[in-house]
Specification:
Layout: E1 2-4, E2 11-13, E3 19-22, E4 33-36, H1 47-61, E5 69-78, H2 81-89, H3 97-112, H4 117-121, H5 123-133, E6 141-153, E7 160-173, H6 174-191, H7 196-208
Antiparallel strand pairs: 1-2, 3-5, 4-6, 5-7, 6-7
Length: 213
Amino acid sequence: MCVSCVGQNNNVFTPVPDFGIYESENQILFTNIIETKEGSGVRFMPAWLSSYIEGGIPAVERLDAYSDKYVFIGVNRGENFNALNIWADNFSEALDFPMLAAVRIENRIISTAALYPDNEYGAFFEAMVKGAYSGEYRGTVKNDTSWIKIWFENENTWEYAENYIFFVFITIDKTAMQYIIRNMMTKVRDSVTVNTYQNNAINRLRLNFFEGF
């Protein structure tokens, strides 16, 4: 599972079952893949997964089937296949998806801040992130799960090791997600007190939030 520290420009990951990754930026090389859920060859992987490995979330959203959706991919990695398989099977849109959404919302707010987000947006920043974690995201769909087995060089021992990486593929219509977040922003803005500078920054954020989201 993934927990993001409110008010800090970093994320803290709590491992389940070995170590958790959400929308990882760690590069996976096709040449390091030994086995996949679909067979021994990478050519059998579903299009969404091969696109994700090749180009991340943007590459998946460029596929015709998902051009009108926001794509979220939960990732977890480790040696214990059974534990990872249970994690993927039990991944819940209602209970687990808010963590994926909240991390992306928090990162988007941080990336727009010229200063520290606590200063840029005042109390709005922390309240918005907390609201994102506890938010209700109706319309999310758990489309698929998959896994790959990779080899890698252990940086400590310089020996080769193997890991499984599991993926949970979730989508939500862009219109629905934007409606949810806009409502969240309105409720949070009405619940906090900010100064004039912070209020102007919040208004700019609300106008530009979905650019690159």
